[in-house]
Structures are given as structure tokens and as C-alpha cells.
Amino acid sequence: MSGPPNGRPGEAPTQRRRPDGFGRRADRAFSGLSLAAGLVVLAVMGLIAVATTVYAWPAFHRGGLGYLTGRTWSSASDTYGALPLVVGTLVTSAIALVISVPVSVGLALFVTEVCPRRIRGVLTGLVDLLAAVPSVVFGLVGLLAFHGLLQAAFQAVAGPTASGSSSMTAGIVVAFMILPIITSVTREVVETVPRADKDALYALGATRWEVVRGAVLPGSAGGITGAVMLGLGRALGETVAVALVIGSSVELTGNVFRPGYTMASIIANTFNGEGNRLNQQALMGLGVVLFGITVAVNVVARQVVARAARSRLGAV
User: What are the structural domains, with CATH classification, of the chain?
Assistant: First the structure.
């Protein structure tokens, strides 16, 4: 009797393998392509940073440290202090996170741990559909449909000086915009928690909330942090929706119910490539500052996620 094909007698048939030389060449080609793609991303980021910094350098040089610490932004007097704009951006983003993170995490946990299977697909589809709505639509809805309602609510809380066009309104609008992003990423992360971890707690008599608190949240903390940071990056750079509802006032104030401005919204409203060149350079400088803040947020997010992953591996 002859033995099985591609093997010795008594052995199971094996698949024909490609020559080693071809496999090595394919591996080298794939490695080279991956390296080139990574270098392209780095090159694009570097070019963005260099081009915007070079264009904005006269404004940086003229203002010095006062460009970041000054409180007056006026093209009429060529005075450019970005502090109110930086603060407005951070405050608006913080409001959006405070509103959206609890709702997003709660919705993701409900979909993955509590929701019946027949309803889960509908909720997931609605969240994904919300992520596809253009930002300008959110801004128009906030401006035309909810401006008066929000103004009445703000005045009931903060007095008659409160405005419907304010940092709080912008934060609420941005919260709805980043909610589907945080929810989708959090849901995917929660679904990766090993089923054995949850079953072990259920076997010990734990309730559903105890399982979520003891297994799901610790096992997905790093991913949830990454999702929040991703939403924060979107909130920092949101432009059109914020420009429609924030009120356009360059004023450093602690009252979030007053009109304000963010770096992205003032660029959208006033950058037209014409007129006062120093003003255009100062606006480009805001783009550089915003770019730097966004990169810093992403670096911090990666560090937090990596640390959480190392902690989980150490615990295992």
C-alpha cells in the first residue's frame, strides 16, 4: 500500500506549503509596506506641525509668552491673547465629558449586560446612526430648537444674565456628538471581558451589579479610558456646531452660562485668508496650540491604556 499524499505512511495528509523563499519575500514586503504606512502618518503630522508653526511664527514672536497668557484678543488693536480661547475650549470639552461619559458607559453596559438580545441590535444601530449625523445638524438643532428652552432653564438656575448661547449650551451639544463615539468603543471593550471571569463571580453568588463592578469594569477600565480620551479629542476640535451655539464672546469668565469662544470656533468664524495678516497668523497659532493639546491628550490616553493593560496582566 502506498502512503497518504504529502506525508509518510500512517500520517494525516498535510497541505502543500509554499517555498520558504517566497514566504520570506512576502514577509519582507509586508514589513516594508507597514513601515512605509507608519512613516507616512508621521510625515504628515510633522508637515502639519511645521507648516502651521512657520506660518504662525510672527504672531508667536510678537506676542511671546503673552500669546498664551494674555486675556485680550482684538484684531482692531493687534492684541492677541489666547488664554480665554484656551480656557473656553477646555471648559466646553469638560462639560461635554461630564454629561456624556456616565450616559455612554451606562448605555454600553446596558446593551452588553442587561438588554434583551432582540432589542440590542436596535439600540446599537441607533447609536451608530447618531454617530453619522453631521456636526452642523447638531449645531442647527441646538440653535433653532433648544436655544429658547435652554435659555429659560439657565436663567432659572443662574439668573437673568444667563444666555442660551453659552459655553454650557456648546458643551451640551458636543456631549451629544461624542456620546455615540464613547458608547461604541466602550461597548466593544466590554464585550472583550472574558466570560469565565463573569461566570466565576456568578458561581460565587454575585449579583449582576457585583459582576459588573468586580469583573467588567476592572477588565475594561483601560479601554474605557481610551474611549473617553477619543471623545475628548473630538470635543476639543469640534468647530461648526460650537460656533453656532457658543455666542462668540472673547471673555475670560467663570460663568459657563455666558457667551464664550473656543479656539476652533473663532478660527471658523474669522479666518478667511484675507485682511490683517497678523490676525491670520494669530489664528493659525491657535491651530498650532490646539494641535499640540490634541496630540498631548492622545499621548496621555495611550499611556493610561498601556498602564491599565500592564496592571491587568500583572494581576493575572
Answer: 61-315 (1.10.3720.10)
